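Q: Fold this one first, please.
A: Sequence and structure below.
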Amino acid sequence: ELTFKNRVNYFSVPILAKLSLLSNRVFSPYLVAGPRVDFKLGYESTFFGDVYKDFKRVTYGASVGLGTELKVSNNFSSLLEVRFSPDFANAYASDLLTVRNQALEFLFGVKF
């Protein structure tokens, strides 16, 4: 049995607009969307290390999501959100391999 562990780490900076659908209620759903820039921090690889070193250092994409804010009290709310974040272009391309990043993110937060 062969096992390969490969990982690329990014620092992602989204700039999102938020559209609240039912504000000032206990349950407030919202939409988010906007551009994103990702900076490659590094990689870990047990097999394909030469490929990862050639990944673009900066990639651009977008994020779109749906969330809800649940007001627990006047000073405290909890947030649940799901986002889809695809890149606009390939992070790596060669004759044999093409890589384009995309992520499905599940987020939980608190608002004070």
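Q: Good. Now the second chain.
A: Here it is, same layout.
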Amino acid sequence: MGHDHASAGMRQRGRLKVVFVLTALYMVAEFIGAFVTDSLALLADAAHMLTDVAGLGLALFAIWFSARPATAGMSYGYYRTEILAALLNGAVLLAIGGYIIYEAWGRFREPPEVASGGMIVVAAIGLVINLIGVFLLRRGAGQSLNVQGAFLEVVADLLGSLGVIIAGVIMLTTGWWYADPLFSVGIGLFIVPRTYRLMSGAINILMEGTPAGLDVAAVEAMLHRDRDVASVHDLHIWSITSGIPALSAHVQVRPDADGDTVLERINRQFAAGFDIHHTTIQIERARLDEASYHEDLSVPAR
């Protein structure tokens, strides 16, 4: 419990707060605009924004909750709260994407008439706000699944605003009401596959899978290259949360090697080569015949 880590989500908390406030204010404006213009499309998008505000709020709550100190009962602390939030956000996004496609199917059969002018104005305001949100969260999305979930929600909103504007222009100039469901399908198809990747990443962490982009064979090969390492077994690499990989292993060293020196050296290599700073290494003494075999044949003892 002595380790002190700041999760990637924690480092993005300030930016998430700004995006949350902007999104909430726009959601209120969009609800008002929907009633003033009598636009069903804006009302539906406002409901979508309400879900996103809830998702951003959940992401912020997860970051705050995950910062609680570790206890005897929760020795890793509450870092995984962020991953649970990412999984829940992914499930909500998947449901939204499916609903958009379902609703678009109904509108293809009977497209409603929309007050296009007011819809375009309100959507344009939303486009600017969502662009700000994408700019603020784009870097953190590559570091934290929780932030990535919030980022995808903002991107979906941005595309929604853009789609509403384009559809509004088409309907305003041509009266072709099918533009509304057509662009809705495009938004739904954008949301679904990206949400699947988000949920897969969250499940991989919860199942303690190897972090994406980290090669276990390369880690094991680095250990075997050490002159004092005879063999390695029970090597496990997982993620405590996004951006915090952890490693445990049993490392057999040569009988004449200093275990503390080997431990310090390989931990430096883990940090420099793989950005792994949270390790639990069991140092074991190899038998003399194993060490000789490793030295003479230049292959790792198994």
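Q: Anything worth noting on the second one?
A: The first helix runs from residue 8 to 11.
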